[in-house]
């Protein structure tokens, strides 16, 4: 009888501890912006390990940023960059660069596809710009050239309550490449990093 009671008590304690751990994980997720279902929080190395468990491979580390590669939103060979605060080893943002496009049509298709999915998840963009400066090119070749020369402003930004923000954009690289980028920013950890910088002033 005593064994049965001890066994039941042991099971009850185990279930209670598991429930508390689940509640704590849910609480953290509710406070932070997420990427791939992972809260953007904790040390950079711990966050990277969670991404590696999802199949991403670490490529290199440059300053405060770790670069990885993997599959994201149906696209292979996406580059993921995990950034952290300078003053505190806390992850504050995660970005994704999609594979380089070969023409404007590919860029626009990828951008529109991601915008549709992000809008479905986060609601209408809080800020949106789709324009070329100083003038609108007449054809796809000119539009692609405008992206390469920083004359294209394609961006949609989403506010995720107090957790953070998600920004979709078209960008170019230092080797003349053009691609779509999504950046996820955690508001709480970004603020902690800014407070560290303000202390220097």
Provide an overview of this structure.
By secondary structure, the protein is an alpha+beta fold. It has 2 domains: 1-31; 33-198, no CATH class. The chain contains 5 helices and 10 strands; from the N terminus they run αββαββββαβαβββα. It has helices at 2-31, 44-53, 104-122, 140-148, 187-198; strands at 34-35, 38-39, 57-62, 65-72, 75-84, 91-97, 127-132, 152-160, 164-172, 178-186. Strands 3-4-5-6-10-9-8-7 form an 8-stranded antiparallel sheet. The chain has a two-stranded antiparallel ribbon with strand order 1-2. The chain starts with a helix and ends with a helix.
The number of strands is 10
Number of self-contained structural domains = 2
Sequence of secondary-structure elements: HEEHEEEEHEHEEEH
Mean pLDDT across the residues is 88
Structural class by sheet pairing and helices: alpha+beta
Give Rg in angstroms.
21 Å
Biggest beta sheet summary: 8 strands, antiparallel
Low-confidence blocks of residues: 21-28
How far apart the termini lie comes to 68 Å
How large a portion of the residues is in β-strands, by DSSP E?
25-35%
Range of helix content: 25-40%
Number of helices, counting only DSSP H or I runs of 4 residues or more:
5
Q: Please tell me what the overall shape is.
A: globular
Spatial strand order of the main sheet = 3-4-5-6-10-9-8-7
